[in-house]
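FYI - complex with flavin-adenine dinucleotide, inputs then prediction.
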Amino acid sequence: MQPMTTESSPAPAPTRRKELIDRLAEPRHYDLAVIGGGATGLGVALDAAARGFSVVLVESHDFAKGTSSRATKLVHGGVRYLAQGNISLVREALRERTTLLANAPHLAQPLAFVMPSYKFWEAPFYGVGLKMYDALAGKAGLGPTEFLNRTETLGYLPTVQSQGPNGRLRGGVKYWDGQFDDARLALALARTAARQGALLVNYCAATGLIHENGKLVGLHAQDQETGRSFDIKAKCVVNAAGVWVDQLRLQDGQAIGREAQPMVAPSQGVHIVVDRSFLPTDHAMLIPKTADGRVLFAVPWLGKTILGTTDTPRHDLAREPLPFKEEVDFILRESARYLTRAPRPADIKSIWVGLRPLVKPPMTMPATPRRCRANTHGAGQQKRPGDGHGRQVDHLSGHGGGCTQ
Ligand SMILES: Cc1cc2nc3c(=O)[nH]c(=O)nc-3n(C[C@H](O)[C@H](O)[C@H](O)COP(=O)(O)OP(=O)(O)OC[C@H]3O[C@@H](n4cnc5c(N)ncnc54)[C@H](O)[C@@H]3O)c2cc1C
């Protein structure tokens, strides 16, 4: 007998592994096969399944095990694209922010940010840009940007240094963006895609691509628990393997006799978690330019405070990257310049480290995408500095972008 369901409590997504593996073994020809169960691959799978395509997705580890659980967890409306003058991307990011906040209010909420200012030009400089951001957002705006005096700034950020590295605290700017739970959002995407009919299997790695007459027609996959192998046929293959995307791309190039260049230039980002007493507030603090020009966030998260992040080139593609001592030192040192109580190594409750799948400049990429092949390298998007988002997708691979776009 089928379990009863209602609009508000749909049937649970099928998760019995044996059933999933049996389905994977069926001789089927999918419309779309996706490699990688991070934000990019899951988003692609959900979108395609919702449009009625038959979809299979394989993830070598657990869903969101890669970069998609290691973000700063901010739903950017594209404020940093504004500085680059990329208005259309700001509009798109704002649209996506609205959709996410509306569709998943249990996983994504508005968050107010305060930028303390110590130099006379900082508040007007950043404030005017943020007012433009408000104007572009229109109805999608989450709250107006406000110029704050010194007392108001201290009210929102009670432990911010009143005498900072660049002089006395003058005031600040408050603006709105969003915050989301990256790992849980990924799981929600997976569950929704499954409900739309997609077959998603974790702990099942894509081990190679299948070609027929020079055309990509599917992939080889292997169950990481049993070692059992599968040939999965599909009209289109999307490589959404994040920073690991190049492995299959290069293999693909060899198989068809076309030299492929690596697309990804991984960049490591570290976050540390400290007690909320270091910044006891529901507002996030943003330092737009630290001593070495990076952005520093101090963000409230699950009753604690997240400090980060870094931007360090890293090419070993570690599955569990560890922070470099200099990165942790940098975060502690910069935090100490802006917080009245300096966090020390002993105050660190936990650390997470992620690899941004930054896309290399286009000239190093293959010039002619081939029909019916999509490699999405998920990298979400990213552009420097910080965790900005620049997107680049060809028919082979899609990387770039953040979790939320
Ligand atoms: C420090 C940091 C801070 C960030 N902050 C933000 C933020 O605040 N907001 C935001 O929106 N974005 C942010 N991002 C960016 C965002 O996290 C990424 O853009 C996004 O997670 C990339 O998702 P992805 O699916 O492309 O990659 P991943 O999440 O890495 O997914 C790729 C998946 O492919 C799997 N895989 C690899 N090889 C295979 C294979 N052969 N077979 C099967 N599966 C395979 C991996 O196991 C992995 O799960 C941040 C990133 C970092 C590093």
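The chain has two domains: 17-68+184-263+362-400, 93-181+265-358. The longest strand covers residues 264-275.
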